[in-house]
Amino acid sequence: MRTYIILTWFSPEAFRDTTGFKKLAETMTAKITFECPGVRWKESFSTHGRFDVVDVMEADEVTEAEKAAMIIRPSGHAVTETLVGTPWKEFLAAL
């Protein structure tokens, strides 16, 4: 499995109603779980920098990671950037 990192920035509209935002997060999680069975979510982090959320997941196929990111975008009034994560030791070994 490859590791993918999804960086997400939410529009201010997403946070106008915090109760609604929490429900939206639950809905997105359920939708990704159902529609992307090849994705294994490892961790999610709230950040206070350029992005609001950093998600770390694993998937066998890049299309599964792409699909998960595309579910987040319209559901959460969000912009995402998806990166492939290579473990540092593997990166160094490839040099």
Structure commentary:
The chain contains three helices and four strands; from the N terminus they run βαββαβα. It is an alpha+beta fold and 95 residues long. It has one domain (2-94): Lrp/AsnC effector binding domain/regulation of amino acid metabolism (RAM) domain (Alpha-Beta Plaits, 2-Layer Sandwich). A hairpin with a 6-residue loop joins strand 2 and strand 3 (53-59). The mean pLDDT is 90.
Strands in their spatial order, largest beta sheet? 2-3-1-4
Specify the structural class: alpha+beta
- Give the CA-based shape: globular
Helix content: 40-55%
Radius of gyration, in Å, reads 14 Å
Total number of distinct structural domains:
1
Using the 3D structure, state the CATH architecture. Answer: 2-Layer Sandwich
Low-confidence stretches: none
Number of alpha- plus pi-helical segments:
3
State the total count of DSSP E strands: 4
- For this structure, the CATH topology is Alpha-Beta Plaits
Largest sheet: 4 strands, antiparallel
CATH class: Alpha Beta
H and E order: EHEEHEH
Beta-strand percent range:
25-35%
